[in-house]
Hints:
- The protein is an alpha/beta fold.
- It folds into 2 domains: 54-140, Immunoglobulin-like; 155-352, no CATH class.
- It has 8 helices and 14 strands.
- The strands form 5 sheets. Strands 1, 4, 7 and 8 form a 4-stranded mixed β-sheet that branches.
- Helix 3 packs antiparallel against helix 5 and helix 7 crosses helix 8.
- The radius of gyration is 52 Å and the shape is rod-shaped.
- Mean pLDDT is 82; it is low at 1-20 and 22-48.
Amino acid sequence: MTFLLKSFAVLGFVALVWAASAVGQTASQTSGPERIDRSAVTAADSASDDGLPGSINGTIVDESGAVVAGARVALSSGDASPNQSKEQQEALSGSDGQFFFPKVTPGAFTLTITAAGFATRVFSGTIKASEVQTVPQVALSIADTRTEVRVSLTQVEVAEEQIKVEEKQRVMGIVPNFYISYIPDAAPLTAKQKFQLAFRTMIDPFTVVIAGGVAGIEQAQNHFAEYGQGAQGYGKRLGASYADATTGTLIGAAIFPALLKQDPRYFYKGTGSTISRALYAIANSLICRGDNKRWQPNYSNILGGLAAGGISNLYYPEQDRNGVGLTFENAAIGIGSTAIGNLFQEFVIRKLTPKAPKQN
């Protein structure tokens, strides 16, 4: 009996040890997978953290350290790939000069800061996942305010300057030579400038001297006998001669050119053969350059001569008024004298004009 009790006691102890061993093994088997699962969760959490966006903030000031409000900050972030472009964001600095981008893709980024009156600044850097990055204070410098100003004269102003040069042209420094242009592509004259040049010629002292010389010759030859002799006769001849000069200039070089938009000046050729220059000079008594710089019949000179001849019938002695005949005779004389004058301009007068500009 005692032996049996001892046997059962040994067996019970063995069974208890086996059961404890089994429970321990089961517990060990159960705790292993739990540790593996936690490691997996931690790795997953870490992988998830790598994709979280970061944030960027900063302050914009000027060179003196004062904050700059309203500056535009452009952010370019993320790595560009063939299928994905860089992320673009914009923000304005506040009244305190600060800007803030709450969600920025991890990786390289570029900030471009612009503000009115300041030079553009560019800042580059790199941001990590979930990082809150404060960029160094951005100081903007004053923009270069140098500007390039190009001043160009209008066509009217160019013509005005050219007239001033022409009004200084005098043969041997005495005889006015205003109606000659040594600039081939001279600017066309306005109507006002045509009258200005005509009046300048009419009141020139040399015009009066020439009229006086012509009147003296006519008196010596007793031309226009009805005028008589003496001072009274000379005065009438002087008035008629001066009237011929001024009416011809006013009508032929101002009124008709303004109405018909033609240039009353002779444009010096100066190049080519002698024959070509001579033909050019003679032709210019019948043709002229229009305000559009195209050649056309010189209606101004022709009609001006006819008009001046017709007006002369009003003040010449009655016996010397040949009506239409005198009118056309004076017009023909005017055209012929223009051709001769042009020949002298082309071959002689320029050499005798000290202040003539050099030909381009």
